[in-house]
Here is the input.
Amino acid sequence: METITFEIAGNHDDPIGNPLPKHRKTMKQQWTPEAQRYHAYLEHVRACFLDEFMKDEYKAMRSKYFTLAEREPLETGKLKCRMTLMIYWKNEAHGDPENVFGAIADAIFVQDKYLAPVVDFQLRPAGAGLVKAKIDINAN
Here is the structure.
């Protein structure tokens, strides 16, 4: 099993804001302000992931799973993966944890069909929104 851990601080609009949940819109609605905000958040998530994944310690993993052919950087094929998220909310104005998982999976994985979720959360009053993520590739 191979593992990568990384953090997503805040969101694209607010460095201490809560993570955003998955945004579901039809193709015609993709240009709404809400959809554009969601896509900007996905770029923020990708940047946080790539900041860690591009370090030398992940060089072997990059040669197997990194793709530039898709917008999402991680191509794991049909390998079973597990993504564990610990979400820290800065306040009570937040989305559903499983929808935050969906947004992060959408940002990172080319195909999340073989991705198992593990999600937990905690409120941090007067704190900052943060997601601690761990991805296990070929998890049994």
